[in-house]
Amino acid sequence: MKKYLLLGLLLLIGSNLVALAGVAYNRLNEITAALTLTERELQLPYNSSAQQENSGLSLQMVWRSPSADDEAYQPYNVKESRLSKEQVLALGFELPDERYYGAQSQPLYWALEFDGELHDAEVVKAELRYQKALDSYNAQPNEDNTRLKNDAFDFLEKEKLTNSRLFFVKAAADYQSLATEFAGKDNMIFVKGLAKAYYHQNSDSYGLSLNQLLVNRIMVPLADTEPLKGLSRLGYRDITAPRYSVEVNWGSRLEPWIVAVTER
After folding, report:
1. Which of 101, 128, 133, 192 is deepest in the core (most CB within 10 A)?
2. Closest Cα partner for 245 from 217, 212, 213, 220?
3. What Pfam families does this protein's entry cite (predicted)?
């Protein structure tokens, strides 16, 4: 029994040392990106008070995929990206068809844009949606048009104040191609995420279903938790400016860590 306990202890120590070595390597080498995000992009957990008291606090990274140029504003984000047949193959997937709706998810390199043209475009679309609803209300101020006008106004305010400004731009099978394509853009980050290809039979088109980031939560160092104390996660209908800012670095393994948290 003691032999097995000792073996288990050695395995635990070994796995912890490997994890710590990975963290150290990520931080000691090249910093691939550095951004100051806010509550819009890094949200508190639902049980933030319990986390702070028990196991430490982590913030969830919130990202979005942009709506297509020919689409109207949609408040409910569908995390997909349109692809050509050639792009599906270049990402390393087998080509899906009507009998094979999607490949297995696989890790890819993602490029994400922060507070740039993609978010600006969503604000414009939200403004157009509100203006259209307002015109309908002015022409016929009934109960349905009142509700649509109010909803469109709330969506616009959320887009301006509360929604994440971190947008998926592109996926690639290798990091270097993304780093080269977006070189010089200081509002870009490169991360690893899971995705799978699919085929849409009705439109005879291909796409990429974006599942999740491989690292989607970032631990807050104990020394930086003070600005977050007493705060709860915002509800879906809450519309408010962010209450804190977070300086984040991404290292050579494309994994993030928090440098500082400040109250806004």
Report:
1. 133
2. 220
3. DUF4824
